[in-house]
Write a structure and sequence with these properties.
Layout (H helix, E strand, L loop, with lengths): L10 E5 L4 E5 L5 E4 L14 H24 L7 E10 L5 E10 L5 H14 L1 H6 L4 E6 L3
């Protein structure tokens, strides 16, 4: 799939990856990093899974609002939450999972589920993860 690049984000990580710092070239994002306590870290900083979950939630919500707008659906008070899990995989390394929780309080469940599916098909993060990690999309009550 060819992509006509409209914007490029640039970030640099220093330290040992999970315990260090990450910063975007423009300085808008600037975080101390620390592995979660459950993975042997201090938990005193952000971690890559949190940053991925935040980015995925924002991107998916944008996709949801676009497809809903095209359908003329009411997205007032909509939200998207993303949970990113990390754990050991079958190869002895680590893998990710993602759960996307869509809230569309002003729509019938069937319409909300249809829009969530369309957003999942449209969202660049969903396209990037498709076939690579397990992603579950659910519509939840507010």
């Amino acid at each position: 799939m060819a992509v006509e690049v409209l914007y490029t984000a640039e970030a640099l990580a220093t330290g040992d990856g999970r315990n260090g710092r990450t910063k975007t070239a423009d300085g808008v994002v600037d975080f101390e990093l620390a592995a979660p306590q459950v993975m042997g870290g201090s938990g005193d900083g952000a971690n890559p899974e949190q940053l991925f979950a935040a980015g995925y939630a924002a991107c998916f919500h944008g996709a949801l609002r676009k497809v809903a707008g095209e359908a003329g659906a009411d997205v007032t008070d909509s939200s998207v939450g993303v949970k990113v899990g990390i754990g050991k995989d079958d190869d002895g390394g680590f893998g990710l999972t993602a759960t996307i929780e869509v809230v569309l309080p002003n729509l019938e469940r069937s319409e909300a589920e249809d829009l969530a599916k369309k957003a999942h098909d449209f969202c660049p993060y969903s396209k990037a993860t498709r076939g690579n990690i397990d992603v579950e999309v659910t519509v939840v009550e507010d």
